[in-house]
Amino acid sequence: MSGLTEQPTEQLSAQGPTRGDELSGMYGPENKADVVIIGAGPAGLSAATELRRCGVQSVVVLDREPVAGGIPRHCDHYPYGLREFSRLLRGPAYARRLVVAALAAGVRIHTGVSIQSLTIGPVLTVTSDAGVRVVHARRVLIATGARETSRAARFIGGTKPGGVVSTGALQGLVHLEGINPFRAPVVLGTELVSFSALLTCRHLGIRPVAMIEPGASTTAFWPARWLPRILGIPLLLKTELLTIEGESTVSGVTIRRPNGDIERLNADGVIVSGHFRPESAILARSHIELDRHTGGPVVDQFGRCSDPDFFAAGNLLRPVETAGWSWQEGKAVGHAIAQSLQGKLPSPATGIAVELAGRSLKYVVPQRIVPTDVPPALDSFQFRVSHKAQGRLCLSINGTRKTVKSLSTVPERRIRVPLTVLPRSPSGTATFELVESDR
Ligand SMILES: Cc1cc2nc3c(=O)[nH]c(=O)nc-3n(C[C@H](O)[C@H](O)[C@H](O)COP(=O)(O)OP(=O)(O)OC[C@H]3O[C@@H](n4cnc5c(N)ncnc54)[C@H](O)[C@@H]3O)c2cc1C
Fold it and tell me: Nearest residue CA, atom 7 of ligand 1?
C-alpha cells in the first residue's frame, strides 16, 4: 500500500465506485456476480479484496451511502489503520485506503444502493435511483455493521425536540455535512464512542455540560475515563437521564442523581452514545436465523449463516469491535467464501450448537461449530459480559462441565477463548457459563 496517494473520497467515488443510478449491467448482463457483498465498511472491503486475491472473478460491493468506506468516513480522529496499514490514520484517510485497495484488486463498488430483501438462491432485491433490480450471486456476504441504540429504544421521556443525536450521527453531521448542531449538549453513556464524541465536540469548540452514566463506573477502560476531567467536563456516575425538554430544539434535561435528587441541566442537545446493535434489519425480514443474544446472524466458524450461501462478518456479528478487528474478520471470512466456492468447506449439517447459560454472559460468537480440519475464519469464541463480573468461565459438553479460565471483567471488555477448547469432533450442545465467585 505504500506510495498510494490519498484522494478525496468523492473523487474516488467518481473514478471507481459507481453510483446506483449507473447500475445498468453492473453485475454483468444477467445481473449476476460470483460474490455480492452488502456493506462497504472495513469488513466488506477487506473481504472483497481477499476474494479477488483468491482469484474469484466478479466481486461486487454494494452500499446505501453515497460514498464507500463505512463508519470510519465519519470519524475524523485517530486511531485507525495500525493493524491494516501499519500506520496511524484518521478515519476518513483510512476509509479511502480501504477503497483504493479494493478497487486496485478489481472489486466493483456501487454506492447509493439499498438492499431490500435476501432470499434463497442466493437472490437479492436492490433499490437505487435506477429502480428495483433482482441480483443473483453464488455467495453473499452481509457486512452491514452496527448502529447505536436510539433515544426511543432507551425509553427516555420528555418532548421530542431536534438536537438529540447518536455519536455516529453527530460525526456524520460534523464531518460530512459541515453542520455544528449545538453548543452545550449532554453526553449520555461512557463507552469508547462516547469519548470519541467528546473529542469531536472539542474539535468544534462545543463544550458538553456533563457526561452522564447510569452505572457506577465508566464503561470504557481507564485512559478514556480521564478525558472528561482533562477537558473540564463533569462526569456524573450512577446518574439517570429522565427527560429531555424543548420545543424545536433541546432546552434542558432532567436527571436523577445517586441520592435520588432530581436536577435540571441547561443544555441545547443530547448525544445518546453507545449501546450498539447489529444493523440486521434486512436479515430480520429474511429466512436467515438470527441470534437472540447478539441480534446478528447465527454463524459457524467460517462466518457462514444458517443458509450456507450467506456469510457475515464485522460488527454485524457482535457489536462492537474496532475497525481493525472487523477488517481482519472480513478478510478471514472472504477467504472462507473463496474456499466455499471451491467446495472446500465442510457440510454445515453436522454442527454442534454453542449456547449460553446464566445471566452473566451477554453473547457468544460463533454460535455453531462444524467438526473439520479446515482452519477456521473465526479462530476463537468471542464473549462479552452483561455486568461487572468475576468467576470461572465454564464449558459443559452434553452435561460434563470443565473450567476454561478464571475471569474478572467488565461490560464491553473483549473476552476470547480459542475454538480448540472444544473436543476434536464435538456433537450435541456446548454450553458456556460464567460461574460468579460472589454468588
Ligand atoms: C463514533 C464512532 C467512533 C469510532 N472510532 C473508532 C476508532 O477510533 N478506531 C477504531 O478502530 N474503530 C472505531 N470505531 C469502530 C469502527 O468504525 C467499526 O468497528 C467499523 O467501522 C466496523 O466495520 P464494519 O465493516 O463491520 O461496519 P461499518 O463500518 O458500519 O460499515 C457497514 C456499511 O454497511 C452499509 N449498510 C448497512 N445496511 C445496508 C443496507 N441495507 N444496504 C446497503 N448498505 C448497507 C452502511 O452504509 C455501511 O457503509 C468507531 C465507531 C463509531 C460509531
Answer: 79
Q: Assess whether pLDDT exceeds 50 at residue 15.
A: no
Burial 11-49 (b: 16+ CB within 10 A, else e): ebbeebbbbbeebeebbeeebebbbbbbbbbbbbbbbbb
Closest Cα to atom 1 of ligand 1: 168
Specify which residues 109 forms β-bridges with.
Answer: 61
Ligand 1 centroid to 74 CA: how many Å?
Answer: 9
375 contact partners, CB below 8 Å, separation of at least 6: none
Q: Looking at the CA of residue 77, tell me the nearest atom of ligand 1.
A: 8
CA of 95 to the centre of ligand 1 (A): 10
Q: What is the pLDDT of residues 234-259, one digit of tens each?
A: 999 999 999 999 999 999 999 999 99
pLDDT digits (tens, 9 = 90+) for 314-342: 999 999 899 999 999 999 999 999 999 99
The CA-based diameter of the chain, rounded to the nearest angstrom, is 67
pTM of the full structure: 0.91
Compare 438 and 167 and report the one with higher pLDDT. 167
Output the pLDDT for position 101: 97
Query: Residues lining ligand 1, CB < 6 A?
Result: 38-44, 62-65, 70-72, 75, 77, 79-80, 114-115, 143-145, 167-168, 171, 193, 196, 279, 282, 314-315, 321-324, 326
Residue 289: per-residue pLDDT: 97
- Residues 86-92, mean pLDDT to the nearest whole number: 95
Mean of pLDDT values over 66-92? 93
Cα-to-centroid distance, 193 and ligand 1 (Å): 12
Atom of ligand 1 at shortest range from CA of 43: 25
